[in-house]
Amino acid sequence: MYKYRGELILLLVSLLAASGWLFSKYALQVLPPAGFISVRFLAAGLLFLPFACPQLRRLSREQLKSAVTVGLAFSLNLFLWVQGMSYTENMGEGAFIVSLSMLLAPLVSWLIFRHRPQRMFWFCLPLAGGGLFLLASGSGLHLSLGNTLFLLSSLVAATSFVLNNQFSKSIPALSLTTIQLLMVGLFCGLFSLLFETWTMPVSRATWGWVAASVLIATGFRFLLQAIGQKHSQITNAAIIMVLEPVWTLLLSVSLLGEIITWQKALGCGLILTALFAYRLQPQLRYRLLLWRKHNRRKGRQ
Question: Which pTM was predicted?
Answer without folding.
Answer: 0.85
